[in-house]
Write a structure and sequence with these properties.
The protein is mainly α. Helix content is about 80%, strand content about 0%. The protein has one domain. Helix 2 packs antiparallel against helix 7 and helix 3 runs antiparallel to helix 9. The two termini are about 30 Å apart.
Length: about 200
């Protein structure tokens, strides 16, 4: 495994996206333990995209306009749903001191769907992972799985860091209603903008 792969992966994981946004919102709204669960769910959500890339399903998304559009708009719809959930007063993702606890299974499900319903992620892995497989490798499938597992491990560690940092700010946030409202609206707007961006994304 090359140092180039590790450095590139760290940069990619650090870039803010739907997974980071979700983990931050859970950390603020639900606390540190829930943010770790969200980080795990986001990491788990990479599995379908990696398998899709390795098995060639990402290539199908690349060549089939219909398949790509179906997955894309499912992802768009889910991002808009997340934005609506964030805006609801007392909703599951509301950032508040007395916000009801979300079941770990629900946190994981939301996190997995955010990644699994993003066809651009599958195409990213299709283009990204093969670049680090040496020509003439005796076991390219095994190397692909190793690279994918390393990327997932980095994702989990970085997302846990994001989530725990957000949870540390929770006490400050929940004691200031105006900040809570601003954060809820900001998270909702960002989810909505990500949905709009995905809706207009090409293959």
């Amino acid at each position: 495994m090359s140092i180039e792969f590790l450095l590139t992966s760290i940069v990619v994981v650090l870039l803010p996206g739907t997974g980071v946004l979700y983990t931050l919102s859970v950390g603020l709204g639900q606390g540190g333990r829930a943010s770790v669960i969200a980080a795990f769910g986001c990491t788990l959500g990479i599995v379908p995209t990696v398998l899709a890339s390795i098995l060639g399903l990402a290539a199908l998304l690349h060549t089939s306009a219909i398949a790509f559009q179906v997955i894309k708009y499912l992802g768009v719809a889910y991002l808009f749903y997340m934005a609506w959930s964030m805006l609801r007063e007392g909703g599951a993702l509301a950032v508040s001191g007395d916000a009801r606890k979300i079941a770990p299974g629900r946190i994981i499900l939301d996190a997995v769907l955010l990644n699994a319903l993003n066809p651009k992620l599958s195409l990213f892995f299709l283009a990204f992972l093969p670049q680090f497989i040496p020509a003439g490798a005796s076991n390219p499938m095994g190397l692909l799985l190793l690279l994918a597992a390393t990327f997932m491990a980095l994702t989990f560690v970085v997302f846990v860091g994001y989530g725990l940092c957000a949870s540390l700010a929770r006490r400050y946030v929940v004691s200031r209603p105006s900040v809570m409202v601003w954060l809820r609206r900001s998270f909702a707007a960002t989810f909505g903008l990500l949905g709009i961006r995905l809706a207009f994304a090409g293959r």
